[in-house]
Amino acid sequence: MSLKDSKIIVIKIGSSLLVDNDRKIKRKWLLSFAKDIQKLKNMNKKVIIVSSGAIALGCIKMNFNKKNLKLDKSQAIASIGQIELMNLLTETFSNYNLNISQILLTLEDTEERRRSLNAKRTLGNLFDLDFIPIVNENDTIATSEIKYGDNDRLASRVAQISNADSLVLLSDVDGLFTKNPKLSKDAKLIKKVENLNEDLKNLNFKGVNELGSGGMNTKIEAAKICYLSGCNMIIANGLHFNPIDRILKQNNYTIFVSKVSKLDARKKWIISSISPKGELIIDEGAKKALKNGKSLLAAGIKKVNGKFNKGDHIKILDKFNKEFARGLCSFSSSEVEKILGHQSKEIKKILGYITKSEVVHKDDMVEI
Ligand code: GLU
Q1: Domain count of the chain?
Q2: What tens digit of pLDDT does each residue of 169-181 get?
Q3: Residue 175's domain is classified under what CATH number?
Q4: For labelling, which of 37, 134, 206, 350 has a CA lying 20 to 30 Å from the CA of 362?
Q5: Count of other CB atoms within 10 angstroms of residue 187
Q6: Pair 333, 231 in one domain
Q7: How do residues 322-337 score in pLDDT, each as one tens digit?
Q8: For the segment 199-222, what is each residue's pLDDT rounded down to a tens digit?
Q9: Residue 165: CB within 6 Å of ligand 1?
Q10: 55 lines ligand 1 (CB under 6 A)
């Protein structure tokens, strides 16, 4: 689906679009962006903006250098800068009669099903009230283990939860190139990626497109989430004025076309997890059974990696360590360690209590 045909659109803007190298706020650019959003609204689109900039604007206010900030300090700076960011956006968007609201997310807000449904409901209610939700990570709380860390993946998770048709990552490069465009003259912009796994197989992203806050790696990770959840993703250059209008009028960006997804909302949520807690390595017999729509039983599990609790997201790998499914595990990692290789009827005796018989139920599992 093209951007023009999309009903729900998530747009991510990075700090480098809001602030220039001399630490000046790019007000003119922001005004042009707000105008683009008004245009989308006039086209009856529902828009969510994922905006970075809390730390960058906090640093400007406090005259700090972002590079020297330790985590706890940057959390305080984000707390100061988030207000600056929202004031800036409120003021700019009011020029186009656009109302905005703020949503700050922490990793669990999207990774826990119940909380992700709450977030979805709030986004829906804001659409009804004709407010544009502005989302950022709750940097003041998040520490490294429980952080999205970059707004590219956060934006893709927001796109999945809101059932968006398109995610636009406005970056400081035109899109994904075959080589680093700053270093190689023959680097070519890849305009369309239709089969994420196949098309990108021969590209090495290290050094290819190092620009942008999260670099190209986090954008590819975001693309994977979108690919499986039925949302097209665009990487486009946001440095130009009216960057969204430019996407609507010109074909100078990379679009990742999503797989047509027949998955229901819950399964899309399972497959798009940002933080699977562990891995189950299974044998060929179990893989075959899973491919035939069966649940995963303890007998087919060879190994457990990682520490996780009952109900956590896990990856399911074959004997070559290739991930081919994801799911919610009905047992903790220490329980799986005890019961792996055993018949389901032996589980009660081994653990000493009654449990489910499937380790990952087919309703809680999605093949990649
Ligand atoms: N959440 C961070 C901020 O607002 C930015 C993270 C990112 O740019 O990826 O400053």
Answers
A1: 2
A2: 999 889 999 887 7
A3: 3.40.1160.10
A4: 350
A5: 15
A6: no
A7: 999 999 999 999 999 9
A8: 887 776 665 544 444 578 889 999
A9: no
A10: yes
